[in-house]
Fold this sequence. Notes:
Blueprint: H1 2-11, H2 15-37, H3 42-61, H4 65-85, H5 87-100, E1 108-109, H6 111-127, E2 131-135, H7 142-145, E3 149-154, H8 157-163, E4 174-178, E5 181-187, E6 197-198, E7 201-202, H9 205-216, E8 220-224, E9 231-235, E10 238-240, H10 245-255, E11 257-258
Amino acid sequence: MFYFLNDLTTNSPFRYLIYALDIIIVASFMYVIYLLMRKTKVYSIAIGILLILVFTIASRILNLSTVTWIFDRLFQVGVIAVVVLFQSEIKHGLRVLGSKTSLGRSMSYESSSIQKIVNASYSLSCKGFGALIVLQKTTSLHSYIDDSVVIDANISEELIETIFYKNTPIHDGAVIITQNKIDAVSVYLPLTQTEPKVKNKRLGTRHRAAIGISEHTDAVVIVVSEENQCVSIVHNAELEYNLTKEELKNKIKEYLEIK
């Protein structure tokens, strides 16, 4: 069967079309890899490995055996080094790719629930309280809920404000919301290893935690800064800082499925 298919593709009048398809698939794969890496620390390293690969191919064509041997070893070591040193960025890139092609069901939210979350966020901002609100999308957040305070409550502006009031014992950490329910409070999230900066401002732990959870999942995260009362949103490790109330609503509608 294999030989029949090989003979068919080799001698078929459509073989040039098959060659073109082969090139298109490889080019598409390389372009996807580029899109995943272009805003990460891996990008500059990948360019270096690509140059080594080009030199390796050129040395083979020119029959430079010693140079070929050296570049072969450099290429092998370089690939292993990237996987070891940048495993979190690679994991994030694969997670983004998976979420874009996922067949899993995305959480849907009521428009009224989103409005309550937005209102509570800006009310907390006006009062000078910080907040971290995580909205689940397709990736499960149960591993983070297990080590937190589970409440399984209906969404209300008053409840969200009470949770993040400074004198409550559960105001530290984040709130996780799943499909119109507040699942858990006092949730501690992984911090990003990169230092988030906006217009030369150093951002605090809440913003690092928001980016950290979005590096591991496709959740949408709302951050209310206690220091400067700015409300921001994070999705796919991209921080959009200091949004107006209308901008925040539009971004949530863009990222989530709203009924």
